[in-house]
Amino acid sequence: xxxxxxxxxxxxxxxxxxxxxxxxxxxxxxxxxxxxxxxxxxxxxxxxxxxxxxxxxxxxxxxxxxxxxxxxxxxxxxxxxxxxxxxxxxxxxxxxxxxxxxxxxxxxxxxxxxxxxxxxxxxxxxxxxxxxxxxxxxxxxxxxxxxxxxxxxxxxxxxxxxxxxxxxx
Length: 169
Known about the structure:
Mean pLDDT: 93
Shape: globular
Helix content: 25-40%
Number of strands: 6
Strand content: 15-25%
Number of domains: 1
CATH superfamily: Flavodoxin domain
Structural class: alpha/beta
Radius of gyration: 15 Å
């Protein structure tokens, strides 16, 4: 069975985290990490990473990266803020710049879970797919599925069960 890492890209323990907890209950050995629990500083834009294949900032980024590298499937739960990913999650992505052109994550299977406050979660899906497009392209992510949820509604257990079934297949 594939090893699954569930990553909450929210700075709160709300809807995104609740979805991941439901998934974790049903996937053996799936681990949740919350980016908010790590000290990940802002990218300085110094481009040290272009020549050195690592970031110059000494913080918790590599604690997260090491966990990503140890797993086969990475599930990112990302809130939609103003039609795009939260700044909190974007900061994490910006810090992955050293992976650009190095194909470090190419073999990882990625699932995106998008969470928005609109009643119509298809709008969230459209906005967030556009928002993550270049991340997928430049980091060469292998996105195997995407799901979107409306935080204005109760947890959609049917959709969560679909995610669990997909992960188990």
